Amino acid sequence: MYRPLKYYSDEFIKNINNRAKEIMTYMYPPVTVYEDNGYIGIEADLPGFDRNDIKVTLEKNAIVIRAEREIKPEGTVFENQRPEKVFKRMSLPMEVDTEQDFSAKYTDGVLSLKIPVKNVKTVRIE
User: How far apart are the C-alpha atoms of 80 and 55, rounded to whole Å?
Assistant: First the structure.
């Protein structure tokens, strides 16, 4: 292949890979959102991140999950699809009670959040 064409095609492919990684950064992490006994539960998969590098903030009726890490692979890297930064903002399906504290746990690469819901009570059926 003619050298300038190979250079441009390689640069084009590299640019596509960088854009795909940026898009995945905003789609990642995969989450599950559910309601359980007056709480909104959120589980987000963040394997490989340190708990100290994860930040969670509650904004009115949205939750923001941010995480950042530095990946230093040894040797020659041929492909790197692991995100170094994560940013996810999600609207919550119910009004949350911002007066109460909410809990967060990070275990085995899974971030678990429990956020109290405002004016929702679950009735136990006997």
Answer: 24
Q: Tell me how many degrees the CA angle 64-57-23 measures, rounded to the nearest 5.
A: 20
User: 98-117: per-residue pLDDT in tens?
Assistant: 888 889 999 999 999 999 88
CA pair distance 115, 57, nearest whole angstrom: 11
Q: What is the pLDDT of residues 7-45, one digit of tens each?
A: 777 777 777 777 766 666 566 788 999 988 889 999 999
Report the relative pairing of strands 110-116 and 54-59 from DSSP bridges: unpaired
**Any long-range contacts for 23-30 (C-beta under 8 Å, 24+ apart)?**
24/81, 24/83, 25/83, 25/85, 25/86, 25/87, 26/87, 26/88, 28/83, 28/86, 28/88, 29/65, 29/67, 29/86, 29/88, 29/111
Which residues partner with 105 through β-bridges?
112
Amino acid at 73: P
Confidence of residue 49 (pLDDT cuts 50, 70, 90): very high
